[in-house]
């Protein structure tokens, strides 16, 4: 079987179809009903979600999405589609054969099942799945595997390989560091650098999830590549949800403290996000700036993620190519 019969599914978390309360509620319902994300028995969680959470969060989240929505749609979807097209081109150039690459969302559209169906229609027999989560977590990568297993019943592939993580991949580390350094070359360097990762409930980490350890490893490698592996760099965790204890330190609390301490210029980068999205553009670039300045801070910079930069796409291509042999190792 030739490599041209292989398809690549490039997966990110997801986004609403539009920044309206109805669309956001539909998206959040799918996301927050995933038992990998909210570990409360469904019989208890369903009424809480549908009668207490969604009626409130649908409207407030829609207003947040409106602040970052582009003429082309959700930033995450726009970048994911660009990344898929560029990955197809980069891989084709390296392999000298066209490999189909399809974008998919774990939640929302296009779904993982729809992406698999499209690749089956293109006569693909083997499937490489590349979740755009640099650090592994059961709430992200394992959830993608759940969706794949369900879709396999209707769109079966002879062989499937899922890239588990790339938190310490040299190409990823260098691409993130280059992205930060390129920003600094244009805008100068800060006094402090905050590397903010998405948070997780502490209970998940206590249960053995390697996510927090991998985040710290990524941060150390990126800071070392920058020559900033010292007290100037702070690792934080954002996007807390609910009343459970989450891993910390919390990004908003650190930004408030740095503002209060008059720490000088503070730059924030988000190495755990492969695309700019609500969590980076609204939570950090807008709300994070407000938090920092409200506490007395003066100069705040949000450094955009790697998105579709050439260095990142080159690294992503290498990750995909290095994984292809695992589909043919028997």
Automatic annotation (TrEMBL):
GO biological process, alphabetically ordered: heme biosynthetic process
Reaction equations catalysed: heme b + 2 H(+) = protoporphyrin IX + Fe(2+); Fe-coproporphyrin III + 2 H(+) = coproporphyrin III + Fe(2+)
Pathway the protein acts in: Porphyrin-containing compound metabolism; protoheme biosynthesis; protoheme from protoporphyrin-IX: step 1/1
Keyword Metal-binding: yes
Matches recorded under Pfam families: Ferrochelatase
GO CC annotation: cytoplasm
Binding site for Fe(2+): 198, 279
Family: Belongs to the ferrochelatase family.
Protein name, UniProt field: Ferrochelatase
Organism: Usitatibacter palustris
Taxonomic lineage of the native organism: Bacteria, Pseudomonadati, Pseudomonadota, Betaproteobacteria, Nitrosomonadales
Name of the gene this protein is made from: hemH
């Amino acid at each position: 079987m030739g490599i041209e019969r292989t398809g690549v599914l490039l997966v990110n978390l997801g986004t609403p179809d539009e920044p309206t309360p109805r669309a956001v509620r539909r998206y959040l319902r799918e996301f927050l009903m995933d038992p990998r994300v909210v570990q409360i028995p469904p019989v208890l969680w369903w009424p809480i979600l549908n009668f207490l959470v969604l009626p409130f969060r649908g409207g407030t989240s829609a207003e947040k999405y409106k602040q970052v929505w582009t003429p082309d749609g959700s930033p995450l979807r726009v970048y994911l589609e660009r990344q898929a097209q560029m990955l197809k081109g980069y891989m084709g150039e390296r392999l000298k054969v066209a490999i189909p690459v399809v974008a998919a969302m774990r939640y929302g559209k296009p779904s993982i099942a729809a992406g698999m169906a499209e690749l089956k229609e293109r006569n693909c027999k083997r499937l490489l799945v590349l979740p755009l989560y640099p650090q592994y977590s059961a709430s992200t990568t394992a959830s993608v595997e759940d969706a794949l297993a369900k879709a396999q019943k209707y769109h079966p592939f002879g062989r499937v390989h899922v890239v588990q993580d790339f938190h310490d991949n040299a190409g990823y580390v260098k691409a993130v560091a280059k992205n930060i350094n390129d920003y600094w070359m244009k805008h100068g360097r800060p006094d402090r650098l905050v590397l903010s990762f998405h948070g997780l409930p502490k209970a998940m980490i206590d249960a053995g999830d390697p996510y927090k350890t991998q985040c710290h490893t990524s941060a150390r490698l990126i800071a070392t590549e920058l020559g900033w592996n010292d007290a100037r760099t702070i690792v934080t965790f954002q996007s807390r949800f609910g009343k459970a204890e989450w891993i910390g330190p919390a990004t908003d609390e650190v930004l408030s403290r740095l503002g209060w301490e008059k720490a000088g210029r503070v730059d924030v980068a988000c190495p755990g996000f492969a695309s700019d999205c609500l969590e980076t553009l609204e939570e950090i670039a807008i709300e994070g700036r407000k938090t920092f300045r409200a506490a007395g801070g003066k100069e705040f910079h949000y450094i955009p993620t790697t998105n579709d930069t050439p260095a990142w796409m080159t690294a992503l291509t290498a990750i995909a190519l290095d994984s292809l042999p695992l589909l043919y190792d028997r």
